[in-house]
Structures
1.
Amino acid sequence: KQEVTQIPAALSVPEGENLVLNCSFTDSAIYNLQWFRQDPGKGLTSLLLIQSSQREQTSGRLNASLDKSSGRSTLYIAASQPGDSATYLCAVRWDSNYQLIWGAGTKLIIKP
Amino acid sequence: ETGVTQSPTHLIKTRGQQVTLRCSSQSGHNTVSWYQQALGQGPQFIFQYYREEENGRGNFPPRFSGLQFPNYSSELNVNALELDDSALYLCASSSGVSGDTEAFFGQGTRLTVV
Protein backbone atom coordinates (compact mmCIF):
# COMPACT_ATOMS: atom_id res chain seq x y z
CA LYS A 1 0.00 0.00 0.00
CA GLN A 2 1.31 3.44 -0.92
CA GLU A 3 1.55 5.62 2.16
CA VAL A 4 3.18 8.88 3.20
CA THR A 5 4.27 9.58 6.77
CA GLN A 6 5.42 12.79 8.37
CA ILE A 7 7.15 12.81 11.73
CA PRO A 8 6.98 14.70 14.02
CA ALA A 9 3.38 15.83 13.99
CA ALA A 10 4.40 19.10 15.62
CA LEU A 11 7.61 21.03 16.07
CA SER A 12 8.40 24.24 17.98
CA VAL A 13 11.72 26.04 17.55
CA PRO A 14 13.10 29.51 18.35
CA GLU A 15 13.30 32.09 15.61
CA GLY A 16 16.50 32.05 13.59
CA GLU A 17 17.14 28.33 13.79
CA ASN A 18 17.64 26.13 10.75
CA LEU A 19 15.29 23.14 10.75
CA VAL A 20 14.46 20.01 8.84
CA LEU A 21 11.02 18.50 8.26
CA ASN A 22 10.80 14.85 7.31
CA CYS A 23 8.62 12.92 4.89
CA SER A 24 8.85 9.18 4.30
CA PHE A 25 7.02 7.10 1.73
CA THR A 26 6.53 3.46 0.88
CA ASP A 27 7.28 2.27 -2.65
CA SER A 28 10.27 4.07 -4.15
CA ALA A 29 8.78 4.19 -7.69
CA ILE A 30 7.41 7.69 -7.28
CA TYR A 31 6.57 10.07 -10.09
CA ASN A 32 7.17 13.24 -8.10
CA LEU A 33 6.87 14.72 -4.64
CA GLN A 34 5.52 18.10 -3.67
CA TRP A 35 5.82 20.11 -0.46
CA PHE A 36 2.98 22.39 0.59
CA ARG A 37 2.30 24.90 3.30
CA GLN A 38 -1.11 25.31 4.92
CA ASP A 39 -2.07 28.16 7.21
CA PRO A 40 -4.89 27.52 9.73
CA GLY A 41 -8.25 27.07 7.99
CA LYS A 42 -6.75 27.95 4.61
CA GLY A 43 -5.93 26.22 1.36
CA LEU A 44 -2.59 24.81 0.30
CA THR A 45 0.35 26.78 -1.04
CA SER A 46 2.80 24.85 -3.20
CA LEU A 47 6.38 25.29 -2.03
CA LEU A 48 8.52 22.92 -4.08
CA LEU A 49 8.00 20.15 -6.62
CA ILE A 50 10.69 17.48 -7.04
CA GLN A 51 10.52 15.15 -10.02
CA SER A 52 11.66 11.56 -9.54
CA SER A 53 14.83 12.26 -11.54
CA GLN A 54 15.85 15.15 -9.30
CA ARG A 55 17.72 15.10 -6.01
CA GLU A 56 16.76 18.51 -4.70
CA GLN A 57 14.98 21.77 -5.36
CA THR A 58 15.57 25.18 -3.83
CA SER A 59 13.43 28.26 -3.43
CA GLY A 60 14.71 31.09 -1.28
CA ARG A 61 15.28 29.81 2.26
CA LEU A 62 13.70 26.45 1.42
CA ASN A 63 15.51 23.38 0.14
CA ALA A 64 13.81 20.06 -0.50
CA SER A 65 15.76 16.86 -1.07
CA LEU A 66 14.66 13.50 -2.37
CA ASP A 67 16.18 10.08 -1.75
CA LYS A 68 14.01 7.53 -3.49
CA SER A 69 16.09 4.53 -2.47
CA SER A 70 15.46 5.22 1.20
CA GLY A 71 11.93 6.51 0.66
CA ARG A 72 12.63 9.90 2.20
CA SER A 73 12.34 13.58 1.48
CA THR A 74 13.37 16.45 3.70
CA LEU A 75 12.39 20.10 3.68
CA TYR A 76 15.12 22.32 5.04
CA ILE A 77 14.16 25.80 6.25
CA ALA A 78 17.03 28.18 6.84
CA ALA A 79 16.95 31.06 9.33
CA SER A 80 13.38 30.40 10.43
CA GLN A 81 10.99 33.31 11.00
CA PRO A 82 7.68 33.55 12.90
CA GLY A 83 5.95 33.90 9.53
CA ASP A 84 7.08 30.36 8.70
CA SER A 85 4.65 29.05 11.32
CA ALA A 86 2.19 26.80 9.51
CA THR A 87 1.48 23.16 8.79
CA TYR A 88 3.78 21.65 6.18
CA LEU A 89 2.46 18.76 4.10
CA CYS A 90 4.26 16.38 1.84
CA ALA A 91 2.40 14.77 -1.07
CA VAL A 92 3.59 12.00 -3.38
CA ARG A 93 2.41 11.02 -6.84
CA TRP A 94 3.21 7.46 -7.88
CA ASP A 95 3.59 6.14 -11.40
CA SER A 96 0.49 4.03 -11.43
CA ASN A 97 -1.95 6.87 -10.89
CA TYR A 98 -2.08 10.62 -10.86
CA GLN A 99 -3.57 11.36 -7.48
CA LEU A 100 -1.50 12.90 -4.71
CA ILE A 101 -1.12 10.78 -1.58
CA TRP A 102 -0.60 12.97 1.47
CA GLY A 103 1.09 12.86 4.80
CA ALA A 104 -0.81 14.23 7.79
CA GLY A 105 1.57 17.18 8.02
CA THR A 106 3.97 18.69 10.53
CA LYS A 107 2.68 21.69 12.46
CA LEU A 108 5.57 24.11 12.80
CA ILE A 109 5.67 26.90 15.37
CA ILE A 110 8.48 29.44 15.26
CA LYS A 111 8.80 31.27 18.56
CA PRO A 112 9.86 34.94 18.40
CA GLU B 1 -1.77 33.69 -4.62
CA THR B 2 -2.75 31.07 -7.19
CA GLY B 3 -5.34 31.58 -9.90
CA VAL B 4 -7.55 28.80 -8.51
CA THR B 5 -10.71 30.13 -6.90
CA GLN B 6 -13.36 28.20 -5.00
CA SER B 7 -16.85 29.17 -3.95
CA PRO B 8 -18.37 29.45 -1.50
CA THR B 9 -15.69 29.76 1.18
CA HIS B 10 -17.97 28.52 3.94
CA LEU B 11 -21.20 26.56 3.90
CA ILE B 12 -23.52 25.04 6.48
CA LYS B 13 -25.92 22.30 5.41
CA THR B 14 -28.30 19.93 7.13
CA ARG B 15 -27.85 16.18 7.06
CA GLY B 16 -29.59 14.67 4.03
CA GLN B 17 -29.32 17.80 1.90
CA GLN B 18 -27.34 18.18 -1.32
CA VAL B 19 -24.48 20.60 -1.93
CA THR B 20 -22.59 21.92 -4.95
CA LEU B 21 -19.09 23.35 -4.63
CA ARG B 22 -17.41 25.26 -7.44
CA CYS B 23 -13.87 25.70 -8.66
CA SER B 24 -12.33 27.90 -11.33
CA SER B 25 -8.99 26.54 -12.44
CA GLN B 26 -5.88 28.53 -13.16
CA SER B 27 -5.60 29.91 -16.69
CA GLY B 28 -4.12 27.33 -19.06
CA HIS B 29 -4.85 24.39 -16.76
CA ASN B 30 -7.07 21.61 -18.10
CA THR B 31 -6.93 19.17 -15.17
CA VAL B 32 -8.89 19.61 -11.96
CA SER B 33 -8.72 17.42 -8.87
CA TRP B 34 -10.86 17.49 -5.75
CA TYR B 35 -9.73 16.58 -2.25
CA GLN B 36 -11.44 16.28 1.13
CA GLN B 37 -9.47 17.30 4.20
CA ALA B 38 -10.79 16.43 7.64
CA LEU B 39 -9.50 18.40 10.60
CA GLY B 40 -5.93 17.50 11.51
CA GLN B 41 -5.45 15.15 8.58
CA GLY B 42 -3.93 15.25 5.14
CA PRO B 43 -6.24 15.65 2.13
CA GLN B 44 -7.90 12.59 0.61
CA PHE B 45 -8.32 12.32 -3.17
CA ILE B 46 -11.94 12.35 -4.35
CA PHE B 47 -11.61 12.44 -8.15
CA GLN B 48 -9.89 14.11 -11.08
CA TYR B 49 -11.18 15.53 -14.36
CA TYR B 50 -9.22 16.03 -17.54
CA ARG B 51 -10.86 17.77 -20.49
CA GLU B 52 -14.35 17.17 -19.09
CA GLU B 53 -13.82 13.44 -18.44
CA GLU B 54 -13.31 11.80 -15.06
CA ASN B 55 -9.97 10.02 -15.26
CA GLY B 56 -9.36 8.99 -11.68
CA ARG B 57 -11.39 8.40 -8.54
CA GLY B 58 -10.52 7.79 -4.91
CA ASN B 59 -12.36 5.73 -2.34
CA PHE B 60 -15.50 7.86 -2.13
CA PRO B 61 -19.11 6.68 -2.60
CA PRO B 62 -21.15 7.52 -5.72
CA ARG B 63 -23.01 10.28 -3.89
CA PHE B 64 -19.84 12.29 -4.52
CA SER B 65 -19.99 13.32 -8.16
CA GLY B 66 -18.48 15.99 -10.33
CA LEU B 67 -18.42 17.86 -13.59
CA GLN B 68 -15.86 19.72 -15.59
CA PHE B 69 -16.98 22.34 -18.06
CA PRO B 70 -15.49 23.36 -21.44
CA ASN B 71 -13.72 26.28 -19.76
CA TYR B 72 -12.18 23.69 -17.37
CA SER B 73 -13.99 25.00 -14.33
CA SER B 74 -15.45 22.26 -12.17
CA GLU B 75 -18.18 21.34 -9.70
CA LEU B 76 -18.25 18.86 -6.85
CA ASN B 77 -21.71 17.62 -5.90
CA VAL B 78 -22.46 15.71 -2.75
CA ASN B 79 -25.90 14.14 -2.24
CA ALA B 80 -27.48 12.89 0.96
CA LEU B 81 -25.03 14.74 3.18
CA GLU B 82 -23.76 12.97 6.29
CA LEU B 83 -22.22 14.48 9.39
CA ASP B 84 -18.84 12.95 8.43
CA ASP B 85 -18.86 14.97 5.21
CA SER B 86 -17.95 18.02 7.29
CA ALA B 87 -14.49 18.97 6.05
CA LEU B 88 -12.44 21.39 4.00
CA TYR B 89 -12.90 20.65 0.30
CA LEU B 90 -9.95 21.58 -1.86
CA CYS B 91 -9.71 21.96 -5.59
CA ALA B 92 -6.41 21.73 -7.44
CA SER B 93 -5.62 22.55 -11.03
CA SER B 94 -2.69 21.54 -13.18
CA SER B 95 -1.82 21.37 -16.87
CA GLY B 96 -1.83 18.05 -18.68
CA VAL B 97 -2.82 14.62 -17.47
CA SER B 98 0.60 13.06 -17.05
CA GLY B 99 0.94 14.22 -13.48
CA ASP B 100 4.38 15.70 -13.88
CA THR B 101 3.26 19.27 -13.44
CA GLU B 102 2.79 21.22 -10.26
CA ALA B 103 -0.66 21.24 -8.66
CA PHE B 104 -2.03 24.57 -7.49
CA PHE B 105 -4.78 24.72 -4.90
CA GLY B 106 -7.60 27.06 -4.14
CA GLN B 107 -8.37 28.35 -0.67
CA GLY B 108 -10.93 25.63 -0.08
CA THR B 109 -14.59 25.45 0.90
CA ARG B 110 -15.32 24.71 4.55
CA LEU B 111 -18.45 22.53 4.66
CA THR B 112 -20.21 21.95 7.95
CA VAL B 113 -23.03 19.40 8.07
CA VAL B 114 -25.34 19.68 11.08
2.
Amino acid sequence: QSVLTQPPSVSGAPGQRVTISCTGSSSNIGAGYDVHWYQQLPGTAPKLLIYGNSNRPSGVPDRFSGSKSGTSASLAITGLQAEDEADYYCQSYDSSLSGSNVFGGGTKLTVL
Amino acid sequence: EVQLVESGGGLVQPGGSLRLSCAASGFTFSSYWMSWVRQAPGKGLEWVANIKQDGSEKYYVDSVKGRFTISRDNAKNSLYLQMNSLRAEDTAVYYCARDRQDGYNPWGQGTLVTVSS
Protein backbone atom coordinates (compact mmCIF):
# COMPACT_ATOMS: atom_id res chain seq x y z
CA GLN A 1 0.00 0.00 0.00
CA SER A 2 1.40 3.35 -1.08
CA VAL A 3 2.10 6.17 1.37
CA LEU A 4 0.32 8.53 -1.03
CA THR A 5 -3.17 7.46 -2.09
CA GLN A 6 -4.48 7.96 -5.61
CA PRO A 7 -7.65 6.64 -7.27
CA PRO A 8 -6.78 3.61 -9.42
CA SER A 9 -8.59 5.01 -12.43
CA VAL A 10 -10.40 8.04 -13.82
CA SER A 11 -12.00 8.63 -17.17
CA GLY A 12 -13.42 11.41 -19.27
CA ALA A 13 -14.57 12.23 -22.76
CA PRO A 14 -12.50 14.34 -25.15
CA GLY A 15 -12.74 18.01 -24.23
CA GLN A 16 -13.80 17.34 -20.66
CA ARG A 17 -12.00 18.14 -17.42
CA VAL A 18 -10.74 15.49 -15.01
CA THR A 19 -8.96 15.67 -11.70
CA ILE A 20 -6.71 13.15 -9.97
CA SER A 21 -6.28 13.35 -6.23
CA CYS A 22 -3.24 12.46 -4.15
CA THR A 23 -3.88 12.07 -0.43
CA GLY A 24 -1.04 11.97 2.06
CA SER A 25 -0.53 12.68 5.75
CA SER A 26 1.17 14.97 8.23
CA SER A 27 4.56 13.36 7.56
CA ASN A 28 4.60 14.08 3.84
CA ILE A 29 2.27 16.48 2.00
CA GLY A 30 0.89 17.89 5.25
CA ALA A 31 4.40 18.61 6.49
CA GLY A 32 4.84 21.07 3.66
CA TYR A 33 6.83 18.96 1.25
CA ASP A 34 6.29 19.69 -2.40
CA VAL A 35 4.27 17.38 -4.63
CA HIS A 36 5.36 16.50 -8.14
CA TRP A 37 3.36 14.75 -10.84
CA TYR A 38 4.55 12.40 -13.58
CA GLN A 39 2.92 11.16 -16.75
CA GLN A 40 3.78 7.69 -18.03
CA LEU A 41 2.57 6.94 -21.53
CA PRO A 42 2.20 3.25 -22.41
CA GLY A 43 5.56 1.52 -22.77
CA THR A 44 7.62 4.60 -21.94
CA ALA A 45 9.52 6.04 -19.00
CA PRO A 46 7.78 8.51 -16.69
CA LYS A 47 8.03 12.19 -17.52
CA LEU A 48 7.85 15.13 -15.12
CA LEU A 49 4.52 16.87 -15.65
CA ILE A 50 4.12 19.22 -12.67
CA TYR A 51 6.79 20.21 -10.14
CA GLY A 52 6.62 22.12 -6.89
CA ASN A 53 2.86 21.53 -6.54
CA SER A 54 1.77 23.73 -9.42
CA ASN A 55 4.59 24.49 -11.86
CA ARG A 56 4.84 23.18 -15.39
CA PRO A 57 8.19 22.34 -17.01
CA SER A 58 8.70 23.93 -20.39
CA GLY A 59 6.82 22.08 -23.08
CA VAL A 60 3.99 20.88 -20.87
CA PRO A 61 0.66 22.28 -22.11
CA ASP A 62 -1.25 24.63 -19.82
CA ARG A 63 -4.14 22.14 -19.94
CA PHE A 64 -2.29 20.48 -17.06
CA SER A 65 -2.36 22.15 -13.65
CA GLY A 66 -1.58 21.17 -10.08
CA SER A 67 -2.64 22.33 -6.66
CA LYS A 68 -2.02 21.43 -3.04
CA SER A 69 -3.99 21.97 0.14
CA GLY A 70 -3.41 20.50 3.58
CA THR A 71 -2.52 16.83 3.27
CA SER A 72 -3.68 16.48 -0.35
CA ALA A 73 -2.78 17.52 -3.85
CA SER A 74 -4.60 17.41 -7.15
CA LEU A 75 -3.78 17.23 -10.83
CA ALA A 76 -6.31 18.74 -13.22
CA ILE A 77 -6.43 18.14 -16.94
CA THR A 78 -8.74 20.29 -19.04
CA GLY A 79 -9.68 19.87 -22.69
CA LEU A 80 -8.95 16.14 -22.56
CA GLN A 81 -7.24 14.71 -25.62
CA ALA A 82 -6.75 11.13 -26.70
CA GLU A 83 -2.99 11.43 -26.19
CA ASP A 84 -3.53 12.19 -22.51
CA GLU A 85 -4.42 8.54 -21.92
CA ALA A 86 -1.65 7.42 -19.58
CA ASP A 87 -0.76 6.58 -16.00
CA TYR A 88 -0.24 9.50 -13.64
CA TYR A 89 1.78 9.42 -10.42
CA CYS A 90 2.18 11.90 -7.59
CA GLN A 91 5.44 12.02 -5.60
CA SER A 92 6.60 13.73 -2.47
CA TYR A 93 8.97 13.25 0.47
CA ASP A 94 8.09 11.55 3.75
CA SER A 95 9.90 12.58 6.93
CA SER A 96 9.01 9.37 8.75
CA LEU A 97 11.04 7.28 6.32
CA SER A 98 14.79 7.68 6.10
CA GLY A 99 15.71 9.42 2.87
CA SER A 100 12.41 8.44 1.43
CA ASN A 101 10.93 9.86 -1.66
CA VAL A 102 7.46 8.35 -1.98
CA PHE A 103 5.10 7.82 -4.87
CA GLY A 104 1.38 7.43 -5.11
CA GLY A 105 0.04 4.15 -6.44
CA GLY A 106 -0.73 5.69 -9.80
CA THR A 107 -3.95 6.56 -11.65
CA LYS A 108 -4.89 5.22 -15.07
CA LEU A 109 -6.57 7.90 -17.14
CA THR A 110 -8.85 6.60 -19.87
CA VAL A 111 -10.11 8.96 -22.56
CA LEU A 112 -13.48 7.64 -23.62
CA GLU B 1 20.54 17.25 -24.63
CA VAL B 2 20.19 15.97 -21.09
CA GLN B 3 20.19 12.18 -21.26
CA LEU B 4 20.38 9.13 -19.02
CA VAL B 5 20.98 5.65 -20.40
CA GLU B 6 20.71 2.55 -18.22
CA SER B 7 22.32 -0.80 -18.89
CA GLY B 8 23.09 -4.06 -17.13
CA GLY B 9 19.67 -5.59 -16.73
CA GLY B 10 18.91 -9.21 -17.49
CA LEU B 11 17.78 -12.55 -16.16
CA VAL B 12 19.29 -13.69 -12.87
CA GLN B 13 18.52 -16.55 -10.50
CA PRO B 14 17.21 -15.91 -7.00
CA GLY B 15 20.10 -15.18 -4.69
CA GLY B 16 22.21 -13.89 -7.56
CA SER B 17 23.77 -10.51 -8.21
CA LEU B 18 23.58 -7.87 -10.90
CA ARG B 19 25.14 -4.45 -11.40
CA LEU B 20 23.20 -1.74 -13.16
CA SER B 21 24.83 1.29 -14.75
CA CYS B 22 23.47 4.65 -15.80
CA ALA B 23 25.44 6.89 -18.15
CA ALA B 24 24.68 10.59 -17.91
CA SER B 25 25.30 13.26 -20.52
CA GLY B 26 24.29 16.82 -21.31
CA PHE B 27 24.56 18.17 -17.76
CA THR B 28 27.07 18.54 -14.92
CA PHE B 29 26.56 15.11 -13.36
CA SER B 30 28.59 15.90 -10.24
CA SER B 31 26.20 18.72 -9.29
CA TYR B 32 23.12 16.56 -8.75
CA TRP B 33 21.69 13.95 -6.45
CA MET B 34 20.78 10.84 -8.42
CA SER B 35 18.17 8.16 -7.79
CA TRP B 36 17.12 4.70 -8.85
CA VAL B 37 13.38 4.09 -9.18
CA ARG B 38 11.84 0.75 -10.10
CA GLN B 39 8.56 -0.47 -11.52
CA ALA B 40 7.45 -4.08 -11.16
CA PRO B 41 5.48 -5.48 -14.10
CA GLY B 42 2.03 -3.91 -14.17
CA LYS B 43 2.68 -2.03 -10.92
CA GLY B 44 3.46 1.51 -9.82
CA LEU B 45 6.69 3.37 -9.24
CA GLU B 46 8.87 2.70 -6.21
CA TRP B 47 11.85 4.81 -5.19
CA VAL B 48 14.81 2.48 -4.46
CA ALA B 49 17.84 4.57 -3.52
CA ASN B 50 19.51 7.91 -3.94
CA ILE B 51 22.99 9.35 -3.58
CA LYS B 52 24.37 12.80 -2.90
CA GLN B 53 26.56 14.67 -5.35
CA ASP B 54 29.84 13.55 -3.77
CA GLY B 55 28.61 10.12 -2.69
CA SER B 56 28.80 11.01 1.00
CA GLU B 57 25.11 10.33 1.66
CA LYS B 58 23.11 7.35 0.45
CA TYR B 59 19.57 6.32 1.27
CA TYR B 60 17.60 3.17 0.53
CA VAL B 61 14.05 1.91 0.71
CA ASP B 62 13.76 -0.57 3.57
CA SER B 63 13.15 -3.56 1.29
CA VAL B 64 16.61 -3.33 -0.30
CA LYS B 65 18.74 -2.19 2.66
CA GLY B 66 21.72 -4.48 3.15
CA ARG B 67 21.31 -6.02 -0.32
CA PHE B 68 21.64 -3.10 -2.76
CA THR B 69 24.41 -0.51 -2.93
CA ILE B 70 24.18 2.73 -4.86
CA SER B 71 27.39 4.40 -6.01
CA ARG B 72 28.63 6.89 -8.55
CA ASP B 73 31.76 7.84 -10.48
CA ASN B 74 31.67 11.54 -11.24
CA ALA B 75 34.75 11.28 -13.44
CA LYS B 76 32.85 8.87 -15.68
CA ASN B 77 29.45 10.59 -15.34
CA SER B 78 28.03 7.29 -14.20
CA LEU B 79 25.64 5.98 -11.59
CA TYR B 80 25.55 2.37 -10.42
CA LEU B 81 23.33 -0.01 -8.49
CA GLN B 82 24.92 -3.19 -7.16
CA MET B 83 22.15 -5.67 -6.41
CA ASN B 84 22.94 -8.76 -4.33
CA SER B 85 20.80 -11.52 -2.86
CA LEU B 86 18.17 -10.85 -5.48
CA ARG B 87 14.60 -12.01 -4.89
CA ALA B 88 11.67 -12.59 -7.20
CA GLU B 89 10.06 -9.43 -5.86
CA ASP B 90 13.01 -7.39 -7.18
CA THR B 91 11.84 -8.13 -10.73
CA ALA B 92 11.18 -4.73 -12.29
CA VAL B 93 12.24 -2.12 -14.78
CA TYR B 94 14.89 -0.02 -13.07
CA TYR B 95 15.11 3.66 -13.99
CA CYS B 96 17.81 6.12 -13.08
CA ALA B 97 16.71 9.71 -12.66
CA ARG B 98 18.24 13.04 -11.86
CA ASP B 99 17.02 13.81 -8.36
CA ARG B 100 16.15 17.44 -7.76
CA GLN B 101 14.01 19.27 -5.22
CA ASP B 102 11.70 20.05 -8.12
CA GLY B 103 11.22 16.44 -9.12
CA TYR B 104 12.89 13.63 -10.99
CA ASN B 105 13.91 15.00 -14.34
CA PRO B 106 14.91 13.47 -16.63
CA TRP B 107 14.49 9.70 -16.46
CA GLY B 108 16.38 7.08 -18.38
CA GLN B 109 14.60 4.60 -20.61
CA GLY B 110 14.92 1.85 -18.00
CA THR B 111 16.51 -1.58 -17.85
CA LEU B 112 14.61 -4.77 -17.06
CA VAL B 113 15.76 -7.03 -14.25
CA THR B 114 14.11 -10.44 -14.05
CA VAL B 115 14.77 -12.65 -11.05
CA SER B 116 13.68 -16.19 -11.81
CA SER B 117 14.96 -19.76 -11.77
